[in-house]
Amino acid sequence: MAEVEKERERWSSKTAFYFTAVGAAVGVSLLWQQIMEEALSSYHLTSLILFKSTDLLALFVIGIPLLILEISLGQYYQTGDVGVFGSFHRRWRGVGLSSVACAYMVVTYYSVLIAWVIHAFFDSFGDEAPWAKEDVTGAAAITYFLEEIIGTKTVKDDGLPTRMIGPNVGYSFLTWFLIWGCLAGGTKWTGRITYFTMGFPIVLLFVFLGRAVSLDGSEDGIKEYIGIWDMSVLTERPDCWSTAVSQIFFSIGVTFGIMTAFGSYNERNEPAVLHSCVIAVANSMFSFITGFAVFAAMGHLAFIEGVAVKDLELGGFSLVFGTWPVVFGTLPGGIHMVRLLFFDLFLLGIDSGFGLIEGCLTAAADTVFLSKYSKAQLAGGLNFLDVVDFYINFVLLLVGFFETFAAGWIYGLEEQVAEFGALAVFSYFAANFGSVILACGLWFGVAVDNAVWAGFVGLILFYVAGMGVTGFLLTMKMNEKPGEYTLFGIFFKLGFGNIMDLRDKLSSQIGYLPGVWAFLMKQIIPHIILILFINLARSEYDETGPVPGKSRFGHYGGYTAWPYQILGYGAVIFAFFLFLVGLVVPDVYNGLTLVDEKTFMEEDISEVPFKAVNVGTEKEDKVLDTAM
Q: pTM of the entire structure?
């Protein structure tokens, strides 16, 4: 066996791993992406509980299986996303690169949000800050934040900025320096930092919750959170299903390369399913409890202002920088509690920031080009944020589809073609995904009353026809090898053989993986994500939206095409471009080959405890190479 040059870093403890993973997933994504997107929607607040219902469904059907996939692959291959998916096939390195790009796109605008929080924290010590004033209202607080902290009072009528806010530039540099500092010391150092950056916000959450529920009017807010059901949102707002899945991706940190990277720093024989469930449950509980604190505070603000909770002005940043500071100003200590809130938001933001960057660094550090560098060396406007924050949902769904499709359909493809023939394998592909595409075309592209039923009928007919062709081809294969297969057996092996092989392979090292995980990864999740991607792309504003009757994609928020919508398009196209380049011209990514890849391909991976292995051998590459 080749001599190993450098032992892979490990977490200092399982607690450090959990705190880092939960902190990266919760972070600002909880307070900004999840709570604000849901609570501040233009729909009635009573629809929130239904939105939570779609979240729970998305969590258990898609989110947790995908989290298990990422942590399992990271542990097994001991590398980040690029190396993991490159191990399935050299043309699939672009999947890992797309996820890393997704993480970097998110952290570039999250870092700006963190900078605004730091600005607000230091500004709270000044005389002009409104949060210390006894008669401050939520509207006054958010107006000050938007105009003075962000600088929107000089924005042009078309929404374009006119100046650079000096303090925000400086605090952005500070944010990136702190992210670098949290990562430069290595995995053990990062894990220990999260004892404070995640542990302290947990303590503060219960402090805030205890105070919020004790205030007058808090029960009205809590009633809006969990006490009123509005089933109409599920039909009136069909894009809630797509958004729920992307919110779950945010809230548990999948499709960014984070969890694959974090899993790679565990020992290979760690129980990946247990780790995934702990992380997912912890994130969901943090989110759920935070919801109580948020809505209790909203109920108190409504009580102070003499209005119903549903009539509060809650658009944009009003919740975090309007409602909460006003409520916290009523606590003993007044302005100091407001500062503590901003500090709490900063800690959550930093957790997300260095978690997202960690996914990028791990993928880079394991490659031939960059393996000799240390982590310390490698880590060396509002409307734009709003637009990119919407379009990043498409990137999340796109990467989620690539990852699950790679695991369920690309892994073991060469062996399936060799056993069943290319025609049978690809007709099975067509039956599954052709039927979904046809159904989506009818559901979202045909403006007739019976489009939903037409879509289901089209899906079933196409699938049955495709499976009929597949069955005919498999029968011919059975005739070539009489007695070797039964009809059920050969269908089962085509449908589940490769994913069960992956399950068994991973289970040999990372512990038990349930059969339902394999079923979801192969037959359910890729199909659902594809439908949700198209559903979100075709969603339209109703008559109360900023652009009534127009698609959200291309008209989001009513912002102008240049530069806002173009920037959003660019984020989605860039992620797809990275994948496409790897698929069509895989040699472009040769520099992303894993360290000592050729040597380790010839070794038993069980003997390699801390090096990544690429199993996409030259023989196994032939099927896709020929197809391309």
A: 0.86
